[in-house]
Design goal:
Number of helices: 11
Structural class: alpha/beta
CATH topology: Spore Coat Polysaccharide Biosynthesis Protein SpsA, Chain A
Number of strands: 9
CATH superfamily: Spore Coat Polysaccharide Biosynthesis Protein SpsA, Chain A
Distance between the termini: 36 Å
CATH architecture: Alpha-Beta Complex
CATH class: Alpha Beta
Amino acid sequence: MNEPTVSVVICVYTEDRWEDILAAVSSVRAQSRPALETLLVVDHNRTLLERLTREYKEHQESGEVRVLANAGPRGLSAGRNTGIAASHGEIIAFLDDDAVAERDWLRYFVQGYADPDVMAVGGRTVPVWASGRRPAWFPEEFDWVVGCAYKGLPGGVAEVRNVLGGNASFRRAAFDAAGGFATGIGRDGDKRPLGCEETELCIRLSRALPGAVLLLDDRAVIHHRVPDARERLAYFRTRTYAEGLSKALVARSVGADKGLESERRYTTRVLPAGVARGLRDALLGRVGGAGRAGAIVLGVAAAAGGYVVGSVRARRGEVTFSVGALPDSTDRTVGPVGPVGKGGEGGSS
């Protein structure tokens, strides 16, 4: 049986991540199961667009690596939608621009699609701390704050409500049925670190295709760089608050039952157990125990506060988002001059 072809989309927005971008592309090119193509979608940054076009000129001619301009509004969701529309693979995989994939990443993704009911397969994202090790106070239950897999996710290969966007793949048929990523929910560069666009898409997909299966395969591993700024408590607080804002929009769109289904188990089972472990470690004199327990309480309070504020704003119509229209599928590979906006920052996690 012929395996499906895979396009890999990497959304980029800033030259500050130049070396990370090159490393991400190299990790895709080194896969044991080769990708059909890698698409670099540049979010409204002309300088970066032109630099990447020069860097991958030879590979663009062969179609192995293609550099595109985001055809939609500034932000990660529109960048992903641009990549989806311009790609040719039967499977579209997404990799963060500051992450590298292990050699068998795509091989494990493709294995999941042997079942025709599987519409999405996600993987495990491992943090690479800039300081060289996890901060003692940082609870594993909140590794989603830095875009990584967290304690509470199932192990092995398991069915899930949603995959995590920085390490995920979808059948093209999923986008045909449900549309693309919603704009107005997710990240817009280094502004407030919103999220949940993949959660909203996956719930919408499950509604459009009631028999759809979404999998998490923790063998499909990427390593995600966590910069110094994201190891700090201030970022932790800001990110958890922003998650609450985003969850309010998702709940407003798809209903609280589905929008908060996984979160209820997480907050009633996983997090209390994490607080108990932290307090136990503190009593035993282990470093960071009290800090981890306190961080979990802080994270819950910040997210709850964001959810309340986001719910009020959504009811008032102060915040809105647009559901997933994909741009024209015209090939937007750029040459010396491409269809871009003014230089600046857009969105990647």
